[in-house]
From TrEMBL:
Cofactor: pyridoxal 5'-phosphate
Cellular component GO terms, alphabetical: mitochondrion
UniProt key word Hydrolase: no
Short name of one Pfam family: Aminotran_3
Keywords of the record: Lyase, Pyridoxal phosphate
Annotated family: Belongs to the class-III pyridoxal-phosphate-dependent aminotransferase family.
GO MF annotation, one: lyase activity
Protein name: 5-phosphohydroxy-L-lysine phospho-lyase
InterPro entries (UniProt xref): Aminotrans_3, Aminotrans_3_PPA_site, PyrdxlP-dep_Trfase, PyrdxlP-dep_Trfase_major, PyrdxlP-dep_Trfase_small
Spans through the membrane: none
Superkingdom of source: Eukaryota
Length: 451
């Protein structure tokens, strides 16, 4: 029996009545009702097409036929508890292993990035016998309680910082402690972690893990300075802890040249634990933890069985395998490099014309454009960023903001995003900023678009 079709107004009214209001919608004052999608495009109930610049979950494109075919075929054949023996999970693990350093050869499949990070935390604490965790300021690692506790982005708004959680400065070379003009910002920021670990030891506590997004996303699309992670790993391991790389947002070739964002830190750098999620299932709930045999053995030796009913089920793994096939066949990493380089170049040209653009940063199809009211003071242009997002929606382009002040326009589109898409986005942003400079000069406390 066909499902009843609701009007947009009926859907919105029912959502407000039935769904928790903390589950916020995009464009909450006038939400978009999306009923179908394909590639990098979304379509509303009237058939209006929107360009999707933010769905990093739908990695190879919305409703990719190769993905849906693989899912339907396996679902029609078998989908069962993962404690039965099946080929898909081992074939998929083997494919993932081929993309990672050889030390990372044991896999645990779960359903979401939050589950993956929660398990990584358990692995680290079991292996080291320690509890304390070092994280970066403004970090976000998931919505489970254990992860809220290690996510400053969340816990600062809730119960506050636990005594076993320690916050290191965000290695932001645009507005942080050490900036572009520092001779070695990677070393300088790594030393802040070393100093923090020493403070922890002085309190009689010990470190289990350093948890870090390989490219901090909620923090504002931050690119970690070269050399930072290897040096931090050295300090953390010397203190008896492990290095956990959160690749939930950035893995699977989003950066183009590198399959994993942690590879930006050098060919020889290898985390002790890697977590992955969002893009790997192209919208299907699929996530994973990869670690070493030594850490996995310690987890097994605690005598407590670990199982995940649906994690790594035959359908999920069929989808995961299909996604890797699509990435290779369509050269989506190459596309991320080509289109991302072009888009970043266009943003840089835009920066020369609009003084509200303080910084352009990113790699591949992971880009951030930070808006400021004053380039010297780096005052966040939060109102301008919010208005730009709303104006772009009117142009049928979906973007959103990140960063501590919600003033960073983020771009993490499906990997099939094209040069023409990039040209359209930048042209629209150019027109909107020009209009704001001419007609809304007092939008922020300071004027925009002026010296």
């Amino acid at each position: 029996m066909a499902l009843k079709t609701l009007s947009k107004e009926e859907t919105h009214a029912m959502r407000k009545r039935l769904i928790g209001q903390s589950c916020r919608l995009f464009y909450s004052d006038n939400p978009v009702k999306i009923v179908r999608a394909r590639g990098q495009y979304l379509f509303d109930e009237e058939g209006t097409r929107y360009l999707d610049c933010i769905s990093n979950v739908h990695h190879v494109g919305h409703c990719h036929p190769r993905i849906t075919e693989a899912a339907a075929a396996q679902m029609d054949l078998l989908n069962t508890n993962t404690r039965f023996l099946h080929d898909n999970i081992v074939l998929y693990a083997n494919r993932l292993a081929s993309t990672l350093p050889r030390q990372l050869c044991v896999f645990y499949f779960v359903n979401s990035g939050s589950e993956a990070n929660d398990l990584a935390l358990r692995l680290a604490q079991q292996y080291t016998g320690n509890e304390d965790v070092v994280v970066l300021d403004h970090a976000y690692h998931g919505h489970l309680k254990s992860l809220i506790d290690i996510s400053p982005y969340k816990f600062r708004k809730l119960t506050g910082q636990k005594e076993w959680v320690h916050v290191a400065p965000l290695p932001d070379t645009y507005r942080g402690l050490y900036r572009e003009d520092h001779p070695d910002p990677g070393q300088a920021y790594a030393d802040t972690v070393r100093d923090l670990i020493e403070e922890v030891h002085e309190k009689g506590r010990k470190i289990s893990a350093f948890f870090v997004e390989s490219l901090p996303s909620v923090g504002g699309q931050i690119i970690l300075p070269r050399g930072y992670s290897p040096k931090v790993a050295e300090y953390v391991r010397s203190a008896g802890g492990v290095f956990v790389a959160d690749e939930v947002q950035t893995g699977f070739g989003r950066l183009g040249r590198h399959f994993w964002a942690f590879e930006q830190q050098g060919e020889d750098f290898c985390p002790d634990i890697v977590t992955m999620g969002k893009p790997m299932g192209n919208g299907h709930p699929l996530a994973c933890v990869a670690t070493t045999e030594e850490i996995a053995k310690a987890f097994t030796d605690n005598g407590v069985e670990y199982f995940n009913t649906f994690g790594g089920n035959p359908v999920s793994c069929a989808i995961g395998l299909a996604l890797l096939d699509v990435m290779e066949k369509e050269d989506l990493r190459g596309n991320a490099t080509r289109v991302g380089t072009h888009l970043k170049m266009l943003f840089r040209k835009l920066q020369s014309r609009h003084h509200v653009i303080g910084d352009v940063r990113g790699v591949g199809l992971f880009l951030g454009v930070e808006l400021v009211t004053d380039r010297e003071k780096k005052t966040p242009a939060t109102k301008t960023a919010d208005l730009l997002v709303k104006r772009l929606k009117e142009k049928r382009i979906c973007v959103s903001t990140d960063g501590p002040w919600e003033n960073v326009i983020k771009f993490k589109p499906p990997m099939c995003f094209s040069v023409d898409d990039a040209d359209l986005v930048v042209s629209c942003i150019d027109g909107i900023l020009t209009d704001l400079e001419q007609n809304c000069p007092d939008l922020e406390k300071d004027n925009i678009g002026r010296d």
